[in-house]
Amino acid sequence: xxxxxxxxLRERAARLTVSFDGEAWILGRPELGVFVAVPEPGAVFxxxxxxxxxLAEATARAGEIAGEPVDGTDFxxxxxxxxxxxxxxxxxxxxxxxxxxxxxxxxxxxxxxGRVAWSFYAxxxxxxxxxxxSQPGLRPSWEDAVFLPSPGLSAFTWLLLxxxxxxxxxxWHWLAGRAVGVPAIFRVSYRGVYVVFETDLTQIVTVPxxxxxxxxxxxxxxxxxxxxxxxxxxxxxxxxxxxGFLAAVALFLIFGIVWQWAALPLRSDSYALLAxxxxxxxxxxxxxxxxxxxxxxxxxxxxxxxxxxxxRDRQIAxxxxxxxxxxxxxxxxxxxxVVLPLMISLGGWGVAQFAGGAxxxxxxWEALAVAVYIAAQLGLPPLLALRERRLRRAGALL
Amino acid sequence: xxxxxxxxxxxxxxxxxxx
Lengths: 398, 19
Known about the structure:
Chain A: This is PqqD family protein. By secondary structure, chain A is mostly helical. Chain A has helices at about 5-15, 40-50, 55-65, 70-80, 100, 105-110, 115-135, 150-180, 215-235, 240-260, 270-275, 285-295, 300-310, 310-355, 360-395; strands at about 15-20, 25-30, 35-40, 185-190, 195-200. Helix content of chain A is about 65%, strand content about 5%. The two termini of chain A are about 40 Å apart. By secondary structure, chain B is mainly beta. The N and C termini of chain B lie far apart (about 50 Å).
C-alpha cells in the first residue's frame, strides 16, 4: 500500500464542506451551489483526505466504516464529475446579495422564528380560516381585483401589490435562512407563465432536515399575517373605497397562498417542504423522469439519470406524480376562475378604449400602457428561461 | 464497494409577483 500524499488533491478536498442531514452526509461547494449526498464512508473519505491528503489513507478509513474495501479512485472520479473538485469560481458571486438583511444578526432574525413567533403565525392562520368559513361575504372572487374605476388602473396596482408583497414574502424566507445561518441569493425568475421573485437557499442542505421547515414556511407565514390584518380591517366595515382596496389585497394574498400549495410541479415552497419531509434529495427531477418514462420514452441519457437517482427518491417519485396532477388541476381552476376573467375584462376594456378614444387621449395612453404591461408579462418568462438555460450550461444552476 | 454519489437539488423559494 502506498502512502503517497497528493498535495493537489488535498487542496481540492479542502474546499468541500461536509455536513450530516440526519440520515445522509452532504458534501458541497457552497460558493458554487453544488451539493451531493453520500453514505458515511464517503464523508469519512473526504474528511481523511482533508486531514492527510493521502488517497490510500482515505480509502482505507472509508473501508473500515463500510466494513469492506471501497473504490477510492472511482469515488474521486465521481466527485470530479459532480463538479465538487472544480477550481474556485473566477468571479465572486456578488449579485443578488442584499445588504440590509445581512445587517440583521442571526440572533435578531431567530426571534421572528422562535416558538412565540410560530404560535403567532398559527393564530393568524386560524383567524383567517375562521373568517373565511364564517363570513361568506369576505370570501374572494376575481371581481375584487378591479377596485378602481378602470381595469387599467387596477392592473397597475396589482403589479405594485405583487412587488411589495413578493418582496416581503422573500425577505421572510431570507430572514429565516439567516436565523439558521444559511445565506441566500435573490433573483427574478419565472415559474410556468408567471414571473416570480426567487430566493436561492441551496445551502440549507447543510443544516439538519428538521431545522429546515421554518425556512420553507416563512414566506407563507408572513403572507398569512398580512392577510389576517386585511380581513380584520374588513370586519370593521371601513369606507367603500378602503374596503375595495382591502378586498383586492385579500384576493391577491389568498391566490398566492393557494398557488404555493398547488404549484408543486413548479417547485413551490410547499414542494420544498414535502421533499424535505419525505427525505428526498432530487425529487422534482426524479418525478418528472418517472412520469415521462410512463407516458413517453426516455432518452438514453435520461434513463441513465433516473437509474442513478437515489432509491428513496425513485420510490417516492412513483406516487408523487399524484399530488403533481392534483396541483395542476388546482392551478387550472385558478386560471379559469381568476386569471382568465380578469384578462378578458382587461382586454375588453382595452379594445373599447382603443376603438372609442382618439389617438393621444388619456384613455388611449392608459390602454396602450396596459397593452405593453401585458406583453411584458407574457414575454418575460421566455426571456428568463433563455437566461437560466445559459446559467445552467455554465453549471451555475440545477 | 462503490460509494454512491447522489445529486442534491437546489432550493429556490419563489413568490408570484403578478398572479
